[in-house]
Design a protein that fits this description.
The chain has about 270 residues and is α+β, with helices and mostly antiparallel strands. The protein contains one helix and eight strands; from the N terminus they run αββββββββ.
Length: about 270
């Protein structure tokens, strides 16, 4: 049969294949987005929860080990010098001055070190009663071998506990145990205790510098004074304790600094 002149012939367009391809692409895109979201969530959980859990457990275990050893076999400690030094980078060198101190009761030590703690080795326990904090203090400020364990790290070249000079410490504010998370809550008069094998040193918070540059090396010098904000700091020698951490929280843009002065020493357990 011939088609009549002027009669339209219907044209059928096959679209099913393209629709299925588009739907498959959308499904794959959605799966990829969900997978990325889950991985990101797991990363956040690992950083904010698991690293804290792991580091706190290790730090608490180290505190118990140190205090058990000290209670069983107390011994006199060598004196420690009062050296000063620049702020070390988080993963910088870990060698430095010793941190033992043989101060007499009520007086800071000023002798030279006769023995230095091994790099990354814990040699003291830091306690801040107001914050309910007890953490080991280790030599050096390396992230991997000190700070990420939940420890406070002793800046190489700064004084030891109880010594004339500046016993300067660094610690994480977030993740990996975050021992210094709440040091911004400390105020004038709050006590900070540092226990070593032979003695317990009691410091009292004196000044808080809320924010300064990460390169403000003046805050950990033997006589600490900010180079960025010179109105914060000291002008005379003394036995100082410095705590440093990052600020604001979850950033490393600036540094928060807490200064304390030695007020007493006592033998044995703190």
């Amino acid at each position: 049969m011939r088609a009549r002149v002027g009669q339209r012939v219907p044209v059928v367009v096959q679209t099913g294949g393209r629709s299925r391809t588009g739907a498959r692409a959308l499904w794959l895109g959605a799966e990829t987005a969900v997978t990325c979201g889950v991985l990101l969530l797991l990363l956040v959980v690992h950083q904010l929860w698991w690293t804290n859990r792991e580091a706190r457990a290790e730090a608490l275990g180290q505190v118990r080990v140190l205090e058990r050893e000290w209670d069983i076999s107390p011994a006199a400690e060598p004196g420690t010098g009062d050296g000063s030094g620049a702020v070390a980078e988080s993963d910088g060198p870990e060698a430095g001055d010793g941190a033992g101190a043989g101060a007499g009761a009520g007086r800071p030590s000023s002798g030279r070190p006769s023995a230095a703690p091994s790099p990354s080795a814990a040699f003291a326990v830091l306690r801040i009663p107001r914050l309910g904090l007890s953490v080991p203090v280790a030599e050096g400020v390396s992230k991997r071998s000190v700070l990420d364990k939940g420890y406070a790290g002793h800046y190489p070249g700064t004084a030891g506990p109880g010594s004339v000079g500046n016993f300067a410490l660094a610690g994480h504010r977030n993740t990996h145990g975050e021992p210094f998370r709440y040091i911004n809550r400390l105020g004038e008069g709050d006590e900070i205790l540092v226990r070593t094998r032979a003695r317990t040193y009691v410091y009292r918070v004196d000044l808080v510098l809320g924010s300064t540059s990460p390169r403000d090396v003046g805050v950990i010098r033997a006589v600490p004074r900010s180079l960025v904000k010179p109105s914060y700091g000291y002008s005379a020698p003394g036995a100082y304790l410095t705590l440093t951490t990052c600020t604001p929280e979850f950033t490393s843009t600036y540094r928060l600094v807490v200064w304390a002065k030695l007020v007493s020493t006592a033998p044995g357990r703190g």
